[in-house]
Specification:
By secondary structure, the protein is of the alpha/beta class. The protein has one domain (about 5-240, about 275-300): 3-Layer(aba) Sandwich (Rossmann fold), CATH 3.40.50.880. About 30% of the residues lie in helices and about 25% in strands. It contains nine helices and eleven strands. The protein has helices spanning about 10-15, 25-30, 45-55, 80-90, 90-95, 120-135, 145-155, 240-250, 280-295; strands at about 5, 20-25, 35-40, 65-70, 100-105, 135-140, 160-170, 185-195, 210-215, 220-225, 230. Strands 2-1-4-3-5-6-11-10-9-7-8 form an eleven-stranded mixed beta sheet, with helices on both faces. Strand 9 (about 210-215) and strand 10 form a beta hairpin. It is globular and about 50 Å long.
């Protein structure tokens, strides 16, 4: 799938080197089709890395995607250059009058806080409320999955004794769910979080369905039955070195961080980890785009409701 992004976005060169088709604005204007409009709310500190992760995963469908980037106006980004934000990002106020086929809300390193203590919580809940009538489907990732479940359905998060950190095996609870079409019976996915959601808090909510779980990592995918919300508690978008970078960062800070499970060969951080989740991740994003957006969104985007 060609991804349409603004001319000059740094991720373009890296993606082109990986043989991923990225379409600049100046090229896309000559194509006479309506692309899907997706909004990415990037809550991660290192926004350029997250842009690259998400763009990779959006590149595996024949459907053209036009991506808008926003960041919280009520939070000061300290790990991304101000010039980058000013050039490539907007705020919610800039896009609230628009309609979008899809919305992606990333994770954020704020799990130690109660939801209401996050400095941009009011802004985030405003965006989530706005999405109900202006977005066809929203994909919530990691902390955003917990935040979305809490805001929309009252499902709270729970602390876990040790960080859920590594690459874990998952199974599928409902193989008829379009989101997991083509998935193997068991598949791997990365997790990196300090909190979790519990099945007993979800199973009695009639609007929700648990689609995938892990014996070791717990709930992985929850979907609203109307397709409006997809909640993914892990980080399938991560590239092969992301967990290593997190591990090295925390070690350098002197934190008591465990070696990520099922990641380094022989649990040896000196060895290069293998990617065990790309196929599943590509399917996850492609299925979301196809079955939850493309097959449902109106051709006239202003008719989204």
């Amino acid at each position: 799938m060609p991804i349409k992004v603004r001319d000059g976005l740094p991720a373009i060169l890296q993606l082109q080197e990986e043989n991923i088709f990225v379409m600049s604005e100046s090229y896309a204007i000559h194509q006479d089709i309506r692309p899907l409009k997706i909004l990415l709310l990037n809550l991660m500190p290192e926004k350029t890395k997250t842009e690259l992760h998400i763009l990779r995963r959006l590149s595996n469908s024949p459907i053209q995607v036009e991506l808008d980037l926003i960041h919280p106006a009520t939070h000061e980004a300290k790990n991304t250059a101000k010039e980058h934000l000013e050039t490539f990002y907007k705020t919610f106020d800039d896009v609230r009058a628009n309609k979008y086929d899809g919305l992606i809300i990333t994770g954020a390193p704020v799990e130690h806080l109660q939801f209401e203590e996050v400095d941009y919580w009011d802004e985030l809940t405003g965006i989530m409320e706005w999405s109900l009538h202006n977005v066809t489907s929203t994909l919530h990732i990691c902390w955003a999955a917990q935040a979305g479940l809490y805001y929309h359905y009252g499902v709270n998060k729970h602390p876990i004794e040790a960080k859920q950190f590594g690459v874990f095996s998952h199974t599928i609870a409902n193989k008829n769910c379009p989101l997991v079409r083509g998935f193997d019976d068991e598949f791997m996915a990365p997790h990196s979080r300090h909190t979790t959601v519990l099945p007993e808090d979800i199973i009695d909510i009639g609007e929700l369905e648990i689609i995938s779980t892990s014996k070791d990592a717990g709930i992985y995918i929850v979907v609203s039955k109307n397709g409006k919300h997809v909640f993914v508690t892990g980080h399938s978008e991560y590239d092969v070195l992301t967990l290593k970078e997190e591990y090295d960062r925390d070690k350098a800070k002197g934190l008591n961080i465990r070696i990520p499970k099922n990641y380094f060969p022989n649990d040896d951080p000196a060895q290069t980890p293998l990617t065990l989740w790309s196929s599943h991740s590509n399917l996850l994003f492609t299925n979301w785009i196809n079955y939850y957006i493309y097959q449902k969104t109106p051709f006239r985007i202003e008719e989204i409701e």
